[in-house]
Each structure stands twice: as C-alpha cells, then as structure tokens.
Design goal:
GO biological process, one term: regulation of apoptotic process
Protein name: Fibronectin type 3 and ankyrin repeat domains 1 protein
Mean pLDDT: 84
Keywords: ANK repeat, Cell projection, Cytoplasm, Cytoskeleton, Nucleus, Repeat, Ubl conjugation
Radius of gyration: 35 Å
Subcellular location: Cytoplasm, Cytoskeleton, Cilium basal body; Cytoplasm, Cytosol; Nucleus
CATH architecture of the largest domain: Alpha Horseshoe
Number of helices: 14
Subunit structure: Interacts with COPS5; regulates the phosphorylation of JUN and the transcriptional activity of AP-1. Interacts with RYBP; may prevent the ubiquitin-mediated proteasomal degradation of FANK1.
Length: 334
Amino acid sequence: KPHPPVVGKVTHHSIELYWDLGKKEKRQGPQDQWLKFSIEEEDPKMHTYGIIYTGYATKHVVEGLEPRTLYRFRLKVTSPSGEFEYSPVVSVATTREPISSEHFHRAVSVNDEDLLVQILEGGHVKVDVPNKFGFTALMVAAQKGYTRQNVYPTLVTVPITDAASSVCDSLMLACYAGHLEVVRYLRRHGASWEARDLGGCTALHWAADGGHCPVIDWMIKDGCEVDVVDTGSGWTPLMRVSAMSGSQKVASLLIEAGADVNVRDKDGKTPLMVAVLNNHEQLVQLLLDKGADTSVKNEFGKGVFEMARVFDRQNVLSLLEERKKKLPRKSSVH
C-alpha cells in the first residue's frame, strides 16, 4: 500500500504534495511501463474523491484554494497492467490570508480603526501604496475626515504631497471636504500650501471649490497665498469661485483677504467675466460692489456686456446696465 502524499509548502491559496520520495520505482523502458500517479481531492459535501492530477511526476501543487480551510488528499498508484492501490488520506489546512495593502485600504475606507491600528502596528504593509484610484490611505483618511490621533502618526510618515503620483494630495482633499481638524493636523506635519496637483492647482483652489468658509478663513490666517495662480488656465481661487459655485461668502472671504477682483487669466478674462458667463447673479453684484471693472476686454476684444448679450444673461445684463448708469461720465476736453 503506498504511503500518503507528503505535504510541502503550504500558503493561504496553495498546497505542495510529494510522493515516491525514495524513488523506489526505477523508470526503465517506455513510459507506458512506468507506474502512474494520481492525486485525488475529497469533496467535503459529497465525501467522494475527484482526480486533480494524473501523470508520472512525483510532485503537484494544488492552487486556487481558500484560506484557513481543511483539505483531504489521497494518492492513487496504477501499475502498467491497470492494477491500482490508494494511499491513506492526508489532511492539511491552508494558512490565514496575509495582510495586504488591499486589507489596509479596506480598513481605512470603512473607518475600521481597530483593524487599521492592528495592521499599522504589524509593520508588514507599506502605507504609501495607492489604491486602484491612485489614492494613498492618508489621502482617503483626509478626504473622509478621520482624525483618530493614534492612526495619523503612522500615516503621515509617507510623503504628504504625493501629487506627483496621484491626482491630488491629502491636504487638498481635506480642504475640499472641509475637514478643518485634518487640515490643521497635516499642516503641523509639514503639508505645504504651495503643493500643486496635476492641473497646477493648490489647496486653496480646492478649498474654493469645496466652499467651506471656516477652512478657507483658517488657511488665509495661516498664511496661504490668496491670489495664487494655477498653471493651467491662470486662474486664482476667486476665478474658481466665479466659474464653479458662485458663492458670495467664499468670494467675500477671498476679496477681504486681498484677492484682486480684476485679475486676468491666460485668455484675458476677469472674475466678473467668468461670473457673467456662468450666470452667477449674486456674485456679479458682489464683484461690482467690490470694484470690478466692466470696461475690461479679453484677448478677443470682448467685454462683459457683449458676453451677457451673446449668452442671453438678461438678469446679469440688467445689473451691468444699472451699474453703468451710476458710473460718473467722463468729461470731454475740447
């Protein structure tokens, strides 16, 4: 009766099996005169065996197994004449699935803080590995606003400004989402207001898009440059507000901090022009009140009045016309 297979390396998804280690059977002559070996695996539900390998080798690796699961195998030895015998059954369990960066990201995304701390303390997972969307765990935590103090010290050991490999960095995400405590924490650990994403925008551009005034106010008090220009369109954060949300509150904060209401982008457009094009009536009114110049022309020679007419911004056009009436007329010199 043959001996049961010998168990070799076992992982969470594979088991190595060996047999005929002493090579007692000499392989001489044609192959059809050799002993043939088969490995059979038990179906735990049916208690029947199925062949998973047959041939003349003395080793087989069973793959695609489930972690932490018990498997049972037996060896079938068939002689050239067709006679066969079975070995006793060998039982072996696969190991626990090793902790990977996927588990790490999953723990962060569902805010499983206990598991996250356990993984971090294990020290076997690289914390700066991005997920399938290109976000590191720190970036996800910043965007979601997680602030548990014993988690962040480990996360911030990775580069905070990872815009070179991702769309944006952790500070930008926290600013956009309005998580002031996270913003403060990242700043204390070296996050820079000057870092840029792939589009050339800074954290203040992201904060302007997010529209969270407490965050923007704190950023300004912390020394963030108000009229910083992106490297794509040449837009300042005020331009972003004019194009995106049209928020009067955010625009007021920026203007009070010194934002230029007549700044011009690469196409010669001003915040007022952008606000007119996007039909942000209240913002148009605010910009006019703050000294926005209605006479400025873009590089194509068009001004806010032409833009309002072409895009049929009747309410905005009325505001512009009303402001024009209030302007002092220029005296003619003869």
